[in-house]
Amino acid sequence: MSTQPPGRRALITACLALLLPACNSVPPPSTAEITSADEARPIRLRHLSALPVPRWVNALPIPKIATATSPDAYTLTLQPGRHDFGIGGPTTPVWTYSDGTPPSYLGPTIVARYGTPVHITWVNALPTMLPFAQEEDHLPTGAQGEPMAAAPFGDAVTHLHGGHIRDLADGGPTQHFSPGDSRQVDYPNDQEAATLWYHDHAMGLTRLNVMAGLAGAYVLTDPYEQTLNLPTGAYDVPLVLQDRSFNADGSLQYPERWEPEFFGDVAVVNGKAFPFLDVEPRPYRLRLLNGSNARFYRLSLSRPKAGKVTLQQIGADGGLLPVMNPTGRLLLAPGERADVIVDFSAFRGQTLTVTNDAATPYSGKPDKAGGTPPLPELLQFRVRNTAPSAASGTPPTPLRPLSENLSLQQAVVQRDLTLNEVLDPQTGLPLRSQLGTLNPDGSAHLLSFDDPVTETPRVNTVEAWNLINNTVDVHPIHLHLVQFQVLDRRAVLRDAAGRVTGYGPALPSDPAEAGWKDTVRANPNEATRILVRFDRAGAYVWHCHILEHEDNDMMRPLQVLP
Ligand SMILES: [Cu+2]
After folding, report:
1. Alpha carbon separation from 217 to 162, 214, 347 (Å, rounded)
2. 202 CA to centre of ligand 1 in angstroms
3. Of the candidates 131, 292, 320, 365, which lies 20 to 30 Å from 125 by C-alpha distance?
């Protein structure tokens, strides 16, 4: 581990997070300062695969549709297995969700229909050792030197990300259960058609269990969506984006003790390294899902020497957008989804590459000096040189009006909440990330997961949450239970001690996030406002979806009061 003194970037973070008196001489960061001072943290440069992984030789697999035991009922068993990522080396020990057919990495896709509940029995048949090395004492100690809470290895619990579900079925971090045990849950599917996903959420283990393979897609359809003439069947393709690194023996390479973020050097899409997909010259619906632990993707579809293809974004986390969003570049933080239509009919016989230029860690700003290099290429589409079919697939505009247009005037409570990073004063390296509230003097009040609940909305009320990011990186903030709307983003104004004194002008949200969202990017030194209707009482959580942050300790309880 590096013992280099903290760089300016780290020092700024420490001052903002802790508001140390000794830091008062450091001026609050401006955009320019963050950019020019963005220094690499050597700790993040390690995870290079031990073998050269071939590109564009693996056909993209489409995760199989889950086999039901009876109509809309599934038994999914969490179990160990081996998987061929197509890395040109030995197969890889992984953890999988099995529906009784031979298990696969990722888990099988659950296809659900609006208004028809899905019943799932989750069976934990995992061993008590992860498929990659991990120290027993894998998390740093907490704020008072106490050991951070983590479930024992082998414990697991599955959360349906984006699902509108009662708290006992939510699969929150404290609901983990041991090997040999099982849980039964019902998902009501009483929300709009959307690309949801299921993944592990066990306390202190989420980054490890998801890295091991515990994730899968959950596609919810509804009659309205089916009237839109969107591509279906083989032309409706989920693309689960992950990054992994591999050891020479084929095993997953992951740090044996907690590190602030993990960035792999191999793009894995639907469980294959750098795959390709042969497509027909016609429209496709691509359901992009960022299933990485920490990597952001800023995606384009590129043609050799011919620039970028316009992506027609039709959906975000919680379903269809009100209007289509044509864009050349899509930004996806961990946990976020985007549905796009790509019409390949203009590209017969050509090869198109899905490219990525998001730096790591992702600050949202040009990052010339710092971070690990991005994964510049993920996936290729090879368009067959056949006659274009007269296929459907041009989406109408408007797509789907918002079922409710939330306004700030509806908000009965406005909460100021903070995103913070705590650095080791000795080494300058991150010890943990924490959410918190805002003190009356504008300083941050950092809170651990175990501190008493502070976010207690009343059921069926609307609240405005003002997410103040005191760090230098973007954090994707995810709320369980709800789909919300992004209101605006404002620059945070600070005094010399870094305390919040006010806000700059409101900037409207991105057209890409104009629909329902369950995960929102909170940019550094900005306050991101979301409007949320809490429509079900119960005990939930909200957290950063960088899984290393979520595990230590960027997660808080959310108690919706009756
Ligand atoms: Cu975070």
Report:
1. 11, 11, 29
2. 17
3. 292
